[in-house]
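Quick check before the chapter quiz. The format below is the same one you will see on the exam, so make sure you can read both the input and the output lines.
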Amino acid sequence: MWATLDFEASGLSDQSYPIEVGYSLPDGQGHSILINPQTASGVWQYWDDYAEQEIHRISRQELYREGWQVVEVCLHLNAVLGQYEHVFCDSQWDLFWLGRLYHAAHMRPSFLLTEIGHWLMQENGINRAQFQLALEEIGPAKHRAMQDAQQIRLAISQLVK
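Here is the expected output.
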């Protein structure tokens, strides 16, 4: 049994941080959580206006108003995803943002997040290009964490029968 996880972030920089996390479970159900950067001890400052306006369309004010505290997010992810043998993402960036999230909460994940390209090749002999093609056939990324996690799940399901 496996789940998929995806992040949206403040930008694509080594100073960026997660602003939304979403996952998709084996039954296809998903969940998305906005993350309040103010609860990360003031260390999350970087903001890319282009990412806000053209990619995820999540404002800082929305995060401040509706975002969960980083500790709450980590506790929730541990409770839900800790029961799965595999939790997959489709980017090294997601691994980076997971680390940044848990570091800010002074916690450790109860699950191992694995970049899907590595697992597909190692376990199934399927290369990253095949995965990318399966993703493209589903349609363009929505750049919202839960929807993207669900697309990742669908693409994996098409490749691994």
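If your answer matched, good. The chain has seven helices and five strands.
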